[in-house]
Structure formats: structure tokens, C-alpha cells
Design brief:
Elements lengths: L1 E4 L3 E5 L4 E6 L10 H16 L5 E6 L29 H17 L4 E5 L2 E3 L1 H7 L3 E4 L4 E3 L13 H9 L1 H10 L3 E2 H6 L5 E2 L2 H16 L3 H12 L6 H16 L2 H12 L9
Parallel strand pairs: 3-4, 4-5, 5-7, 6-8, 7-10
Antiparallel strand pairs: 1-2, 2-3, 8-9
Helix pairs in contact: 1-2, 3-4, 4-5, 8-9
Length: 271
């Protein structure tokens, strides 16, 4: 296990290709300041470009996932000034959030949000940006923006209705109520709720299984599913055909067939 401790995040890479990124501002329940946003964007790009990173697990330190953007720093942006230049306009800061959200959603590798404690505002939508969401019983979710005089962001207007339906999404976003893990599971917001004592083992099992899978085929499947609500059936079938054509040209598909014949577990390389 290789560990890279940065100012606001911890990056751990295992030998099997699982990268765990831990948001590490526990004194603020891992609320994201400008430094964390920059570090998250950088590490997501690193993972996407890596040939050895297979799976991303995104989590938070000290029993919380992420309490959203650090609103305590939003009223004073003087720290953003560099070499006597004026501080960035809020629109520029939001463009940075856009880059982070798109990079996470487009990551060509499976992603798992491991959620404990609070996941609210941008923190909730960061979890929803992952392919799979696993929580323990302590998890609490809220589209808390309205309580702060803000509208929904970090992709929530796109992601939330696709998870829970339009009317339930409006209820969660307009009322900004906090829901517990049990309700989140019942409405389809998360994939699994497991006991706290089993959370690490459960996430490790899913991450290990994904890391051992065929990288190109998984990337293709993820892309097809992400695009599924934006295309017609005919377009989806065309995209599936192109994806399968790519898969059949890889060594991984040949390895899968050979392993099946030889009655052994395939070893996928992503080539």
C-alpha cells in the first residue's frame, strides 16, 4: 500500500489497482475548500490517466463523508488573489466545480463512494457522481442548499432525478431535509447499507472484484449506461455494437474465453 498525504486529501494505492481517496478536513466534517477542490481535480485526472489504477474508492476522514463546500470561506475570497491580481469571481470558482464533477462522472474506471456520517450539499452529489454508493447506518444525506440560500449544484439537478425520480428529487431539493441511510436505501439513493463493522470489508470486496475485471469492457459498459437516458434505442444498439467490436479486438476477451475453456479465473490486463 502506497500512501500520499496531501494538504486536504489522502491517496492510498493498493497493489491490486484500488485507489482510495480520503477527503481529510475532519475539523470541518471534510467540507471542501479551494485547496481540496484543486487536489480532488488533480487526483481524479491522475487516476483517469493511469494504466495501473483500476478502481476509485472515495471516502471521508473521521466518520464523515463530506459536508459540502466550505461556506465559511465563501464570504471572503481575498485568499484567491495572486501577485496583486484581484480574487476570482464566483463564476470562475463554479467553473472549477464543473470540471471536478465532469472529471469524476466521466472517469473511465469504476468508482465507489464509501459513505459514513454526513454527505450533504456538494458532498451528497459527489457521492451520487460515483457509480456505486455504499454506506453504514450512520450515513445522513441532504440537498442542503436551500438552507444556505443556494440552488442545487455539483450535478445534483442531473443526478438526483435519475436516482430517485423527478418528484422525489424536488422534495429532497426544495425542502432540504436530512434523510438517514435506511430511507436513502429505500428510495434508491444508495446501493447498500451495511453495519459499520462490515463496511470496510464490503467496500474492499466490491473494489477488489471491480479491479480484477476487464478494464476496457467495464469502461465501455459504464459509458453506455451513463449515456442511456440521452439516446434512442437505435442509438444505444449502435453504441453497443461499436463497443463490442472494440472488446473483441482486445486480449482481455481472448483471455476470458481461454480461461472459461480452461476452467480458471481470467487475468485481465486492459489490453
Amino acid at each position: 500500500m502506497a500512501t500520499d498525504t496531501r494538504e486536504t486529501i489522502i491517496v492510498e494505492r493498493s497493489d491490486d489497482g484500488v485507489v482510495t481517496v480520503t477527503m481529510n478536513r475532519p475539523h470541518r466534517k471534510n467540507a471542501a475548500d479551494s485547496v481540496m477542490w484543486d487536489e480532488l481535480l488533480a487526483v481524479f485526472r491522475e487516476i483517469d490517466a493511469s494504466s495501473t489504477d483500476r478502481v476509485l474508492v472515495l471516502t471521508g476522514a473521521n466518520g464523515d463523508f463530506c459536508s459540502g463546500a466550505d461556506v465559511s470561506a465563501m464570504g471572503d475570497r481575498a485568499d484567491d488573489a495572486v501577485d496583486d491580481e484581484p480574487p476570482k469571481h464566483q463564476l470562475m470558482a463554479m467553473r472549477n466545480i464543473t470540471d471536478i464533477c465532469l472529471t469524476l462522472n466521466r472517469l473511465a474506471k469504476p468508482t465507489i463512494a464509501r459513505v459514513q456520517g454526513v454527505a450533504v450539499g456538494a458532498g451528497m452529489n459527489m457521492a451520487l457522481s460515483c457509480d456505486l454508493v455504499v454506506t453504514d447506518e450512520t450515513a445522513r444525506f441532504s440537498e442542503i442548499f436551500a438552507r444556505r440560500g443556494l440552488s442545487i449544484d455539483f450535478g445534483g439537478s442531473f443526478l438526483l432525478p435519475r436516482r430517485v425520480g423527478l418528484h422525489k428529487a424536488k422534495e429532497l431539493a426544495l425542502l432540504a431535509e436530512i434523510i438517514d441511510a435506511k430511507e436513502a436505501e429505500a428510495i434508491g439513493l444508495v446501493n447498500r447499507v451495511v453495519p459499520s463493522s462490515e463496511l470496510d470489508a464490503f467496500v474492499a470486496d466490491w473494489a477488489g472484484r471491480l479491479a480484477a475485471g476487464p478494464p476496457i469492457a467495464l469502461a465501455m459498459t459504464k459509458r453506455l449506461l451513463n449515456n442511456s437516458m440521452n439516446v434512442t434505442l437505435e442509438e444505444a444498439l449502435d453504441d453497443e455494437g461499436l463497443s463490442q467490436t472494440v472488446n473483441f479486438s482486445t486480449g482481455d476477451t481472448a483471455e476470458a474465453v481461454l480461461a472459461f475453456i480452461q476452467k480458471r479465473t481470467p487475468k485481465f490486463t486492459g489490453r
